[in-house]
């Protein structure tokens, strides 16, 4: 077991971060090795829960940015004691640096063990990370353009604006395993369209979709799971006619549309073994001239939205977790929507960032 000294702490963080910065791997604590080859199990003694908690705290607080998907488990040994196994995924947002104990080092790993990255290697990593984010943004831009031009996965009702939600895993543009449409279909209830009473599941060329249609056979809401693990959810009719010449977007409905589905979509991705981090991107199309409906009041003096398309800020889902974590991660997008009405931030979150809408 890694001790509690500064050197032991740095050694543990070096080992963990070096795996994340390269190809990922497993770290087993409680095993002897020679020249990189395991030779014997040397079980740990003590309280495994306390050891796990200490290691989790070290990894969380001593590595920047935090490594998504890091897992630890204590396994009992029949002869007594236990070993600790860490599953360290390849990071899609490298590099991760060791920041604990006044350290500021970035490590990689090869067949000889952990080593400190050179300047040239760091330059390549930073360039690659930026390229991945550029591809995420390009995916969003391409999909929005196709939807706006009438080339969505199905014909859409065209009036009263659209809400478009994208969940794009960073791994979508790497060498991760593709999502099988059949497995996505098994999770169709988690992938139901936004604000829909019913839907028709379909396997298609791009992956799998759930489609909700109106009486004229045109779609009012759909969810599409792409083979690369990205999700696209579209809902039309997001702008209502409050009065003649008065268009309205209900902030309460907007919140509900997102937060009723976001945890379910992320749960589906987790079951499909799509890794985090995942970029959440929310867009409103066809909303020029609309005002925000705030709580239960229609405030005529609020400014009108001055553009046809609102691409709200990207939000990063660092790891799967409880609903409140997703609410906190998504808050910047909601604050930006409220900014269009002249507000500093959304009034539907409490001081901790938890979604707390007014009761009806």
- The poorly predicted ranges are none
Approximate shape: elongated
Major sheet: 8 strands, antiparallel
Rg? 24 Å
What is the H/E string?
A: HEEEHEEEEEEHEHEEEEEEHHEEEEH
Rounded mean pLDDT score: 91
Helix and strand content put the structural class at alpha+beta
Strand content: 25-35%
Individual helix count: 7
Number of domains: 2
Helix content: 25-40%
Compute the separation of the termini in Å: 54 Å
Number of strands: 20
Your description of this structure?
- The protein has 7 helices and 20 strands.
- The protein has 360 residues and is α+β, with helices and mostly antiparallel strands.
- It has 2 domains: 6-117, Schlafen, AAA domain (Methyltransferase, Cobalt-precorrin-4 Transmethylase, Domain 2); 131-339, no CATH class.
- A hairpin with a 2-residue loop joins strand 8 (105-110) and strand 9 (113-116).
- The protein is elongated and about 75 Å long.
- The mean pLDDT is 91.
Helix/strand layout:
Layout (H helix, E strand, L loop, with lengths): L5 H16 L3 E5 L1 E4 L2 E5 L6 H15 E2 L6 E6 L5 E7 L8 E2 L6 E6 L2 E4 L2 H30 L13 E8 L11 H6 L13 E5 L2 E7 L5 E8 L4 E6 L3 E4 L2 E5 H9 L2 H10 L6 E8 L5 E3 L15 E3 L3 E3 L5 H17 L21
